[in-house]
Amino acid sequence: MTKEIAVIGLGQFGGSAVKQLHKLSADVTVIDISESKVKYYEDYAVECIVGSATDENMLKTIGIEHYDEVIIAIGEDIQTSILCTLILKELGVESITAKAQSNHHGKLLKKVGADNVLHPETEMGIRLANQLVNMSLVDYMEISDDTAIVEYDANERFINSALINIGIREKFGLNVIAIKRNKEVIVPPDPQMNILENDVLVIIGKIENLNRFESKMIKPKS
């Protein structure tokens, strides 16, 4: 079944979400107070609405409570994002994802009903810092306070070795959940498969174990 998702706020974050959701064949409704922004995204949405995020009558009229997910992408205006979250919760929206500007903002969003809170600027800063420190790190994403998914370029320690012989799970308590090879993503990877040059390992595990793995197995940036 096609998911129905509303995106409120069409800044850079909200606009990126709309385009990606469109690629994934979701039915997207866009809402923004700017008519020009709404018009820009009309090719990516099934419904385009010019209006305020806190207009309760408008939200009721479109049946916002029936959407599978509502994304509040207006983190810059803290008061509006909090009020919008509160209204959506009172209207019975099942799942609300909201963008936060800070940890304090995120806590307030959680208190008034946000099911998921995103900190895109913080997450981008973490990714950048990790990539600057370690040139083998392709991507980094925390999925909880103590767990992350990371992508590493295969270095000379791994190339032409079978995945099982590297001992990533046995030595470090980590799991290789995929291997990116050229344009192919191998999920799940066969433990007996050899790692090739230019492969990217996608690994999940506790952050402390990932740090231990990096220090032992990943060559630091010189």
From TrEMBL:
GO terms for molecular function: monoatomic cation transmembrane transporter activity. Residues 135-219 form the RCK C-terminal domain. PANTHER family: KTR SYSTEM POTASSIUM UPTAKE PROTEIN C, POTASSIUM CHANNEL PROTEIN 2-RELATED-RELATED. InterPro entries: NAD(P)-bd_dom_sf, RCK_C, RCK_C_sf, RCK_N, Trk_Ktr_HKT_K-transport. SUPFAM superfamilies: NAD(P)-binding Rossmann-fold domains, TrkA C-terminal domain-like. GO terms for biological process: potassium ion transport. Residues 2-118 form the RCK N-terminal domain. This is Trk system potassium uptake protein TrkA.
